[in-house]
Amino acid sequence: MKKYERGELAKEILLGLAAGGFIVACLAMPGLTKIIPLFKPKGAKDRYRINQAFQKLQKNKLVNIYIKNGNEVVEITKAGKKKVLEYNLDEMKLKVPQKWDGWWRIVMFDIPQSKKRARDAVSRKIKELGLYPIQKSVFVSPYLCKNEIDFVGEFFGVRDHIIYIKAKEIEGVRELKKHFGVS
User: Fold this and answer.
1) Which of 178, 152, 173 lies closest to 104 in space, CA to CA?
2) What average pLDDT does the chain have?
3) Residue 20: what pLDDT?
4) Which letter, b or e, does each residue of 16-50 get, where b requires 16 or more Cβ atoms within 10 Å of its Cβ?
5) Could you tell me which of 62, 66, 144 has the C-alpha nearest to residue 103?
6) Would you state the pLDDT for residue 65?
7) CA angle 152, 153, 157 (to 5 degrees)
8) For residue 83, what are the contacts with CB-CB under 8 A and spacing of at least 6?
9) Residue ranges of the domains in the chain?
10) How far apart are CA 12 and CA 155, in angstroms?
């Protein structure tokens, strides 16, 4: 079995459940015996770790484990789905094409003070994605990022305060091209 860092096994299980990959296996046989082989355990210690991960997920109310028609069912909860979104947010990256299409993507937001935590989180994530700040709440990128921006806005509940613009021309283009290494 792969060596997992603390919490990584539970994360992988939760992501698998969200994708629907483990549900069928759980329904097929009680005791999680169909899921355990997916992690290629090398012995009792590995099987124990997998069971512990499931118990921790259940204790944290990220999954429900119950018996239905004589079979053990593992179901991801609303809190579990939210956690999966957090994982997706943490791992989100922009795809950098081999050749730039010549369009600039400008992302602007005006998130009210009452949603300061969301505003700060959106700003931080946009920077992490590699967009370049040209003003405090105005960022630019030469790469497609609409889906990612929509996801970030929806995740923090402020999508209606974000504007996405696609433009051919922008001031300071020489500095931007140099920053992104595009021509």
Assistant:
1) 173
2) 84
3) 65
4) bbbeeebbebbeeeeebebbbeebeeeeeebbebb
5) 144
6) 80
7) 120
8) 14, 62
9) 8-88, 92-180
10) 21
Q: How far apart are CA 74 and CA 58, in angstroms?
A: 9
- Residue 98 sits at φ, ψ, to 5 deg, of -65, -35
Contact (CB, 8 A) for 107 and 139: yes
What pTM was computed for the model?
0.68
Note the pLDDT of residue 23: 47
pLDDT higher than 60, residue 177: yes
**CATH number of the domain located at residue range(s) 8-88 in this protein:** 1.10.10.10
pLDDT digits (tens, 9 = 90+) for 31-88: 455 555 556 667 788 778 877 888 888 899 988 888 778 777 778 888 888 888 888 8
- Cα separation of 25 and 107, whole Å? 43
By CB atoms closer than 10 A (0-12, 13-18, 19+), residue 178 is: exposed
Element (H, E) at 27: helix 23-28
Q: Does domain 92-180 bear CATH number 3.30.2350.10?
A: no
Q: Sorting pLDDT into bands at 50, 70 and 90, what band is 24?
A: very low
Query: What pairing do the DSSP bridges indicate for beta strands 162-167 and 138-141?
Result: unpaired
> Is the pLDDT confidence value at 132 over 70?
yes
All residues at 6 or more sequence positions from 88 whose CB lies less than 8 Å from its CB, including other chains: 151
